[in-house]
């Protein structure tokens, strides 16, 4: 299948068909088990729509798709695995077979009752349980569709919503990922965060931090540090535009939703030093 350039819009089904047609020509995907092809195309196509269909209409502009970093990332799979690509590079490329299988395995491991969707309780085990409870709650509030019945598994996260969740967390520095996370951080849906919001959000991180045996810290100090990092246009509120402008939005989001993210920020100098130290031969 090739894109019909006379029609400026591509649907999710057309995108999946396009990717299916590419598989035989991509060196790293040629040996994909036939039983996994449909699932792979679903996962691969979803990244295009996460970045090219911000309003979640199931349609994307072909021009935007063709110019996106997603297509470039997919085409990297032309490289022969054995000689040119490391295991780390494979794992980091969303479109690699390794990554797609990782996503599936992650979802299946979280889905304890095997009903095909994730409850809040099940999602809390994501990333070894380092995400805060308030963030999980807010992710459901903002990004999980309510079912007609309003009860039961109608309020659980389906696989498509899980893919959005993972893509946002793995692309926190991208505008699309940060926009997803900001909706969760914006506790009152006002379009901005106040010092009170930061205090509420970080309180859960602080609890996990202390439970992990770390040193005591002052929530107000962290709040002030975040304000210094952002330097918002309005000194009383932080907007999504402020987070994008300061170029540290992904880091700040991590500090507010994930105790591991805060630990990485708190230990950034040590981590940077470790990266810079030459390996011993």
From TrEMBL:
<dbReference type="InterPro" id="IPR039865">
    <property type="entry name" value="PPP2R3C"/>
</dbReference>
<keyword id="KW-0106">Calcium</keyword>
<dbReference type="GO" id="GO:0005737">
    <property type="term" value="C:cytoplasm"/>
</dbReference>
<feature type="domain" description="EF-hand">
    <location>
        <begin position="98"/>
        <end position="133"/>
    </location>
</feature>
<dbReference type="InterPro" id="IPR018247">
    <property type="entry name" value="EF_Hand_1_Ca_BS"/>
</dbReference>
<keyword id="KW-0963">Cytoplasm</keyword>
<dbReference type="Pfam" id="PF13833">
    <property type="entry name" value="EF-hand_8"/>
</dbReference>
<protein>
    <recommendedName>
        <fullName>EF-hand domain-containing protein</fullName>
    </recommendedName>
</protein>
<dbReference type="InterPro" id="IPR011992">
    <property type="entry name" value="EF-hand-dom_pair"/>
</dbReference>
<dbReference type="GO" id="GO:0035303">
    <property type="term" value="P:regulation of dephosphorylation"/>
</dbReference>
<dbReference type="GO" id="GO:0005509">
    <property type="term" value="F:calcium ion binding"/>
</dbReference>
<dbReference type="InterPro" id="IPR002048">
    <property type="entry name" value="EF_hand_dom"/>
</dbReference>
């Amino acid at each position: 299948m090739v894109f019909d350039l006379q029609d400026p819009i591509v649907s999710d089904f057309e995108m999946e068909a396009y990717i299916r047609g590419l598989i035989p020509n991509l060196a790293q995907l040629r040996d994909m088990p036939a039983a996994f092809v449909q699932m792979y195309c679903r996962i691969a196509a979803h990244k295009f729509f996460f970045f090219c269909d911000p309003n979640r209409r199931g349609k994307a502009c072909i021009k935007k798709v063709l110019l996106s970093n997603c297509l470039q990332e997919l085409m990297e799979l032309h490289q022969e695995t054995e000689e040119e690509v490391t295991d780390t590079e494979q794992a980091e490329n969303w479109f690699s077979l390794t990554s797609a299988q990782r996503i599936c395995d992650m979802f299946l491991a979280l889905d304890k009752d095997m009903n095909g969707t994730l409850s809040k309780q099940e999602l809390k085990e994501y990333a070894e349980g380092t995400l805060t409870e308030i963030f999980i709650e807010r992710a459901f509030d903002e990004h999980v569709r309510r079912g007609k019945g309003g009860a039961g598994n109608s309020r659980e996260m389906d696989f498509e919503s899980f893919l959005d969740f993972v893509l946002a967390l793995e692309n926190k520095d991208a505008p699309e990922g940060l926009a997803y996370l900001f909706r969760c951080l914006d506790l009152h849906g006002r379009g901005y965060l106040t010092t009170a919001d930061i205090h509420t959000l970080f309180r859960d991180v602080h609890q996990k931090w202390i439970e992990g045996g770390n040193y005591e810290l002052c929530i107000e100090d962290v709040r002030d540090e975040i304000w210094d990092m952002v330097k918002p246009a309005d000194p009383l509120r932080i907007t999504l535009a402020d987070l994008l402008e300061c170029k540290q939005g992904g880091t700040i989001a991590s500090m507010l939703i994930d105790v591991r993210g805060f630990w990485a920020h708190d230990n950034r100098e040590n981590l940077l030093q470790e990266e810079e130290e030459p390996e011993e031969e």
